[in-house]
Amino acid sequence: MSSYSAKKALRSRNPSTGAVAGEVPITPLEEIPALVRRAREAQQSWEAVGTVGRCECLLGAAHVFLDRAEEIGHLITVEMGKPLAESVSEVRSCGQGLEGELLEIQEALAPEVIEDGRLRSIVYRDPFGVCAAITPWNFPFSMPHWMVLPALAAGNSVILKPSEETPLTGQAYVDIVGALLPNGVLQIAHGGDEQGKALVRSDLDLIAFTGSREAGKDILRSASDGLRRVILELGGKDPLIVLEDADIEKAATFAAWNSFRNAGQVCVSTERIFVCEAVAERFEHLLAEASSRRVVGNGLKPGTTIGPMVNERQRDHVLRHIEDAVSRGARVLAGGSGHHDNFVVPTVLTGVTDEMAIAREETFGPVACITRVANEEEAIRRANDTPFGLGAVVFGSQERASQVARHLRAGMVGVNRGVHGAKGAPWVGARESGYGFHKSRDGHRQFTQTRVVTQGR
Ligand code: NAD
After folding, report:
1. What average pLDDT does range 13-32 have in this prediction?
2. CB atoms within 10 A of CB 249
3. Tens of pLDDT along 33-74?
């Protein structure tokens, strides 16, 4: 972690080339209380606009996101490296989904009447006040969006602290959405963890955080002072279980996609694979073959499917995990060498055992780690043997895989597919992957204080 309090400008660098992509002014730590005061002043009149009025206002962002998807997508690729088409689609999906999202929020926040024949209660969902949204770099447009949008729609004012790796994308988000709102309702603080910590210590009502487990724990400790509300969406160590009766081709295709997309820098990446012995050989062969079809390179270059690691620190971390695993007996089925600059060659390892760091810590890199298991019971036991609990996936016959799914202790489980749920379903972690939701009725309600007013009949 570098110190940002001593510097004035935060430079964003292209991880593919090392070139400077741009810079933003760092928010001095002593200015953070003033940002919070300004947010508090702006909040009351924003609350008074009402949910419908606020949603109408925010809907104006949809066409801007769509019109500027190519340009902002380019910025995302230049700042953090992912293939251009994925960056553009990240921005576009925020535009395409906006209207539905706002309707969902309005339904979630509408006052609810509860009567029991004797009493009549009205349940209101009011804003908390000032919310900080602190976000990571791996989806640098949609992660701010998933937190800032419901916070604003609920009537809070928001200070976004985007990742120090992707400040330009965070700034673009705030420029677009902030232009639709009264002054002070949406502001930005730039810098690293010091700015994040200073924000967390300031006079906030709600802290919405997406990022690593370590930072989440630190935030929770700080927030306990004053019992400020927190929403934590943290990391994972997602398992993929491949049962004997799985469609092995589909399972291997999924494993390659979900281990390598965004260079493995996804919170619900497949980080551990438990495959039943009877089908292991074929699965390993197909996965190794699929990995060799990946094209590693600059995300701006057509045809690239895997970009660089976001920075040198992340690259070193991933390479350390691979080296440690190999030194402890893991076998390399694909990749494993030929890495250069920030680019890590997609790697498939088998024979991964519990004492290897790659089996226990979040890797966040393009590595597929296979452990052969005797049967379904062993697969379940080992899949659950982690403090994390974000996502999990099971491939097998629909019936067996669905049964296994109910034994997994993750917040989201995909059966013969990834973990993304149906429209309206929450994005939710369990255990040390944090608590709180993204999206869905329950997710939107977290940005509000429930108040009940009761009268006799
Ligand atoms: P990170 O925790 O290092 O940083 C996230 C943000 O928090 C940044 O803006 C950073 O400056 C700030 N920060 C860091 N330490 C802080 C502290 N102690 N107090 C306040 N702010 C602090 O995470 P990252 O490297 O940017 O992102 C990768 C992590 O995010 C992975 O663990 C990944 O699994 C997780 N993630 C989770 C989800 C989810 O939905 N659960 C989604 C995306 C990413």
Report:
1. 97
2. 12
3. 999 999 999 999 999 999 999 999 999 999 999 999 999 999
d(CA 191, CA 160): 11
Q: How far is CA 148 from CA 1, 370, 431, in A?
A: 25, 37, 24
| Cα distance between residue 103 and residue 149, in whole Å | 12
Residue 286 banded pLDDT, cuts 50, 70, 90: very high
Asked whether 419 lines ligand 1 (CB < 6 A), one says no
Residue 84 has pLDDT above 80, yes or no: yes
Spell out the SS3 assignment of the chain. Answer: CCCCCCCCEEEEECCCCCCEEEEEECCCHHHHHHHHHHHHHHHHHHHHCCHHHHHHHHHCHHHHHHHCHHHHHHHHHHHHCCCHHHHHHHHHHHHHHHHHHHHHHHHHHCCEEEECCCEEEEEEEEECCEEEEECCCCCCCHHHHHHHHHHHHCCCEEEEECCCCCHHHHHHHHHHHHCCCCCCCEEECCCCHHHHHHHHHCCCCEEEEECCHHHHHHHHHHHCCCCCEEEEECCCCCEEEECCCCCHHHHHHHHHHHHHHHHHCCCCCCCEEEEEHHHHHHHHHHHHHHHHCCCECCCCCCCCCECCCCCHHHHHHHHHHHHHHHHCCCEEEECCCCCECCECCCEEEECCCCCCHHHHCCCCCCEEEEEEECCHHHHHHHHCCCCCCCEEEEECCHHHHHHHHCCCCCCEEEECCCCCCCCCCCEECCHHHCCCEECHHHHHHCCEEEEEEEEEC
Q: Which of these is catalytic: 55, 94, 267, 276?
A: 267
Query: What number is the average pLDDT over the span 331-341?
Result: 97
- Residue 267 designated active-site: yes
pLDDT digits (tens, 9 = 90+) for 150-182: 999 999 999 999 999 999 999 999 999 999 999
**Is it the case that residue 1 has pLDDT exceeding 50?**
no
Mean pLDDT over 361-388 rounds to 98
Ligand 1 centre distance from Cα of residue 136 (Å): 5
> What's the pLDDT at 318?
98
Residue 2 pLDDT > 70: no
Ligand 1, atom 14: nearest CA belongs to which residue? Answer: 193
Question: Is the C-beta atom of 97 inside 6 A of ligand 1?
Answer: no
What's the pLDDT score for residue 435? Answer: 86
233 catalytic? Reply is: yes
